[in-house]
Structure formats: structure tokens, C-alpha cells
Amino acid sequence: MSVTTLSSHALAQRQPNWIVRLFDYKPFLIVMCLAPALGLLTVFLTYPLGLGVWLAFTDTTIGRRGIYVGIENFQYLLTDPLWWNAVFYSVFYTAVATFGKFALGFWLALLLNNHFPFKSLLRAIVLLPWIVPTVLSALAFWWIYDPQFSIISYLLVDVLHWRDSNIDFLGSPWPARFSLIAANIWRGIPFVAISLLAGLQTISPSLYEAAMLDGASAWQRFRYITFPMMLPILAIVMTFSIIFTFTDFQLVYAITRGGPVNSTHLLATLAFQRGIAGGELGEGAAIAVSMIPFLVFATLFSYFGLARRKWQQGEAND
Amino acid sequence: MTETVAQSTVADAKAPPDTMAWDSGLRRLMMIYLPLGCFVLILLFPFYWMAITSFKPNAELMNYRDNNPFWISSPTLAHIKHLLFNTAYPQWLKTTMLVAIGSTTLSLIASTLAAYAIERLRFRGSPYVGLGIYLAYLVPPSILFIPLATVVVQFGLFDSPLALILVYPTFLVPFCTWLLIGYFKSIPYELEECALVDGATRLQILRRITLPLAVPGLISAGIFSFTLSWNEFIYALAFIQSGANKTVPVAILTELVTGDVYQWGALMAGSLLGSLPVAIFYSLFVDYYVSSLTGAVKE
């Protein structure tokens, strides 16, 4: 009984129909497996990326095909104080927010690397700002930054009596800029902390034991073990963070929409305002394309950060 | 300096005297628990503020002199009622859910196949395909949304949720593929060789052996994609125009913020309700989130 079923099974295996055979043919299978992913990415990522660069050299507007105008858009941008302002704020925003995120995030990661009760619960809570839709937490910040009913102003004025008047968070350029940076840091800390915590946990405790035996202080252990061992992962996380902070859109759009008097425009929000809201697709695309050099710089930064990894793993230098 | 450290380690190793224990306890409190407490307080405060605002009557919202702003003296459901019955909020939730589930399914299928091909069907140049997909992750939506808007119009998908379902995989597929390549790597190759020797076809191997073993990875990729597409903003803002087809984050910002007087109660209630699905989802799968977040970074 069992012998007959086995042999018929083997027979069916030996004479598969042509579809099964086709799907077992490796090159065909590879093409079939890669087709959906590469198709989606080509149509909705590579093609638009090229199209965006092309649009930047045309005067396309919504509803009208543009013609090639050369570098006119970029020449115009170079004379546009608003663009320069956006470049300045994008760089400033990225620099200050990244510094804040990494200083505080690293600190939080070091704290979370200790042993204490409810550790996993705490780790879960810490990640919450990163999980919740950014626009929705940005709305909460907008309400926290309200000129009249800000809870921070209430604390400082009515509870602590440190100030006499409410803080005008979003009404004038510099306070608005720093308020947005604070919201960005708040949102970015969890990602940095959890990623770095994962890195911290891979450092072998024996290194610390050896350093303790040699009499290294807590600061020396951090400076000569933790920090160098964390450099590769720091480089990767920082590249991601820089890219996504520099191209940030949601926070600024939700809280200030680039105001007051266009002082908090990032390149992304300026591109949206000109390109989609204003209908000048060509000019908006030019603004978006002008972000690319900065991003290439950030990616190169990552590449050299990754290159460090080799000597840290003890492999041959090249 | 070094001596004190050495001494303290020696003291730790022996049974420390009571004063030492108290001292290190206080030190722990100041160095670990106090800063941790501050971090948690600051990280959670906006959510507390969001939640408390959505249940406060308007009179209390606008009057800090007579009411303690940190508490509600007469909680109300008026804001949530307004949201559910006077606005298209349920419709927005439905659209967001549809878009998130659709794009997650699409990207999971595409990236599972791609990751399998790259990691297990090894062909010449497969590392480069993997690298190319990884690089796609580094292209931020802020650069793409303007040309993508024209592409979406060309395809006749403007103002349709289908546009979002098709576009979201551009940032989901690179992430999921990279995550799944890592998972497939951890599955012993010998298992597949055994199956090959036993006469299984490649597709049978994928379905019967590799996929069941990669379930944790699939869950991680799935919940992550769901969260990312639920939270996506810029594409949804640029491609959707009519009120009914908007996703929750966009709709709250563009439909509920009207005029000069902001209805903070309703705005915060909307934000709270819009955050809850991902927050609940998150609380069910915390470990998967953490592993996918850190796994994707480490790769």
C-alpha cells in the first residue's frame, strides 16, 4: 500500500507539467521574483527621480507641459532670498537637531543599558514618540506652543513665576525656529536611543572588565571603549538621521507652514509651496533637486563611517 | 583617581558596608533614575496633553486661572462625538486603513520574493541588486513628491487611494527587503538543500520551508510597513484632494484646522484617535518593532 503511493508520488514528481518546470528554471524564477519589487521601484522611484531632474530644467506648471529652459530655474533660485533662507534654515535645523538628538539619545541609550526593573516596559514607552504619526504629535506641539494657552508659558509664568509674560513661541522667527527644532529632537530621540542601545548591547563585557582591571575610570571606559566601538553604528544612524532631518517636511508644515514671514521654511516645505500649492512644478522640482548635493554628502559620510568597520572587526585594512 | 576606582571595585566585590550601599543607591538614583524619569516625563508629556485636551470642555481649555490645567474637573465626550458624527472622520479612518493594509500587502509580497531571489537564488550581481534596493531607501519622499505627482496624474490616479497604495511601496519595499534578507540569511542553507535533494521545487521550498521559518521577519516587516504607511504624510497631502479620500493625518490638518479659532479639543481628539490604532498595534508587537528597527540599522 505504502509502496504504491510512494511510487506514484515519485512518478508525479518526475513528470511535472511544463508550468512547474518553468518555475523551477532558475533564471526565469529570478526574473519573476525580482519583477514586482524592481517594477514598483522603477516606475515610482527611479523614473520620478529622473523626471524630477528633468522638470527642474523646464518651466512646467500644473496643467501645462513645460519647455526646456536650461539652468534658468537654478539661476533664479540663486537670486531668491527665500531660497537662501530655506538653505540656511535647513542646514541649521539639521545641525542643531542632529546634535541634540544624538547627545540626548546617546545619553538615554546609556541609561537604558543599565539593569533596573521594568526595563522592557520602559524601552517600549520610550519608542512611542517615534511610532505615532508625526503630524499628530506635531499638532500636540502646536497646541503646547499656543501663544495664549501654552502649558509651558503657564508653568513658567503662573507656577514658577520665572517670567512675567507668556512666551511667543511661534510668532517671531528665532523662537519659532528653535521651537521646531525642539519638536524634531523630541521625535528623533527614541530612534537614536533604541538603535544605539542595540549597538551598546553588542559590546563585549570582557572589554570593560579588562579596562576595570587596568584601572580605567568611567569616563575613560566611555571614551576609549564605548565610543570607538559605537562609531560604525553611530555613523549609519547619523546618516539616516541627517538625511531625514534635512528633508523633513511634516513638522514644519504642520506647526508653522514656513511662517512667520517665511522664516522657518525648509527646502522641502518651500518646494511644496512653490511646486504643488503654487503650481510652479518646474521651480518646485528645482528646489527639490537642490537638496541632492547635501544628501550625497551625507551618504558619503555614511560610506566612510562604514569603511571604519573593517579594522574594528580586525580584518585586513585596504 | 585610579586608586579610588580600584578601591571601589574591591569594596563592591566584598560585602559592602551599609553606608556604602546607601551611597551607591543614592548615586544610582541621581545618575540613572532621575535622568530616566525626566526623559520619560518629557517624551510622554505631549501624549498626556493630547489625551487630556480631548476630554476637556471648552470652558476649561481656555481658562487656566480657575482650573488646574493638568487635570479635568468635568470630563466630556463632546469633542469625540463632534468628530465622529459631524465630520467625515470615520471615512478618513476607513481610507487610511485601506491604504495601509493595501500597501503593506503589496510591499510584503514584492519584498519577500525579491529578498528570496537575492539571498537564496544567488545569481551573478545579486549583491548589487541588494545594494540598489538599499540605496532606494535613502531617496527621501521630499525629493520625489513633485515628479511623482505628475506621474500619478499621467496614470489617471490623482485623488484616488490607489495612487497611495502603489506609491507607498517605494519606501516600504527597500526597508522590508533589507529586513527579510537578514532573516533569510539566518535560516540554515542545509534545510533547503535537503528539500532540493528530496525533489522539492524552488517554489515549494519557499512556501514550505523558508517562509514558515521567516515568520518573525514577516511580522516585523508587516507591522513596520503598516505603521509607516499609516503615518505617511507628504504623498497623501500632494496626491489627494477631495475631503472623503484623505488619510487621517492629512485630513486632521487640512479639514479640521479651519478659520482663525482653532478647535483644540476636536483637533486633539482627532490626533488621539488617529494615534490609537498604531499605538495599540505597537503595544501588541513591541518586540518585533524593536528587532526590526535595530535589525534594519545593523544590516
Automatic annotation (TrEMBL), chain A:
<dbReference type="GO" id="GO:0005886">
    <property type="term" value="C:plasma membrane"/>
</dbReference>
<keyword id="KW-0762">Sugar transport</keyword>
<dbReference type="InterPro" id="IPR035906">
    <property type="entry name" value="MetI-like_sf"/>
</dbReference>
<comment type="similarity">
    <text>Belongs to the binding-protein-dependent transport system permease family.</text>
</comment>
<keyword id="KW-0472">Membrane</keyword>
<feature type="domain" description="ABC transmembrane type-1">
    <location>
        <begin position="87"/>
        <end position="304"/>
    </location>
</feature>
<dbReference type="Pfam" id="PF00528">
    <property type="entry name" value="BPD_transp_1"/>
</dbReference>
<feature type="transmembrane region" description="Helical">
    <location>
        <begin position="86"/>
        <end position="112"/>
    </location>
</feature>
<dbReference type="InterPro" id="IPR000515">
    <property type="entry name" value="MetI-like"/>
</dbReference>
<dbReference type="GO" id="GO:0055085">
    <property type="term" value="P:transmembrane transport"/>
</dbReference>
<keyword id="KW-0813">Transport</keyword>
<feature type="transmembrane region" description="Helical">
    <location>
        <begin position="28"/>
        <end position="47"/>
    </location>
</feature>
<feature type="transmembrane region" description="Helical">
    <location>
        <begin position="224"/>
        <end position="246"/>
    </location>
</feature>
<keyword id="KW-0812">Transmembrane</keyword>
<protein>
    <submittedName>
        <fullName>ABC transporter permease</fullName>
    </submittedName>
</protein>
<feature type="transmembrane region" description="Helical">
    <location>
        <begin position="124"/>
        <end position="145"/>
    </location>
</feature>
<feature type="transmembrane region" description="Helical">
    <location>
        <begin position="185"/>
        <end position="203"/>
    </location>
</feature>
<feature type="transmembrane region" description="Helical">
    <location>
        <begin position="285"/>
        <end position="306"/>
    </location>
</feature>
<keyword id="KW-1003">Cell membrane</keyword>
<keyword id="KW-1133">Transmembrane helix</keyword>
From TrEMBL, chain B:
<feature type="transmembrane region" description="Helical">
    <location>
        <begin position="97"/>
        <end position="118"/>
    </location>
</feature>
<dbReference type="GO" id="GO:0055085">
    <property type="term" value="P:transmembrane transport"/>
</dbReference>
<comment type="similarity">
    <text>Belongs to the binding-protein-dependent transport system permease family.</text>
</comment>
<keyword id="KW-1133">Transmembrane helix</keyword>
<feature type="transmembrane region" description="Helical">
    <location>
        <begin position="265"/>
        <end position="285"/>
    </location>
</feature>
<feature type="transmembrane region" description="Helical">
    <location>
        <begin position="205"/>
        <end position="227"/>
    </location>
</feature>
<dbReference type="InterPro" id="IPR035906">
    <property type="entry name" value="MetI-like_sf"/>
</dbReference>
<keyword id="KW-0812">Transmembrane</keyword>
<dbReference type="Pfam" id="PF00528">
    <property type="entry name" value="BPD_transp_1"/>
</dbReference>
<keyword id="KW-0472">Membrane</keyword>
<dbReference type="InterPro" id="IPR050901">
    <property type="entry name" value="BP-dep_ABC_trans_perm"/>
</dbReference>
<keyword id="KW-0813">Transport</keyword>
<feature type="transmembrane region" description="Helical">
    <location>
        <begin position="162"/>
        <end position="184"/>
    </location>
</feature>
<dbReference type="GO" id="GO:0005886">
    <property type="term" value="C:plasma membrane"/>
</dbReference>
<keyword id="KW-1003">Cell membrane</keyword>
<feature type="domain" description="ABC transmembrane type-1">
    <location>
        <begin position="93"/>
        <end position="285"/>
    </location>
</feature>
<dbReference type="InterPro" id="IPR000515">
    <property type="entry name" value="MetI-like"/>
</dbReference>
<feature type="transmembrane region" description="Helical">
    <location>
        <begin position="130"/>
        <end position="156"/>
    </location>
</feature>
<protein>
    <submittedName>
        <fullName>Carbohydrate ABC transporter membrane protein 2, CUT1 family</fullName>
    </submittedName>
</protein>
<feature type="transmembrane region" description="Helical">
    <location>
        <begin position="30"/>
        <end position="52"/>
    </location>
</feature>
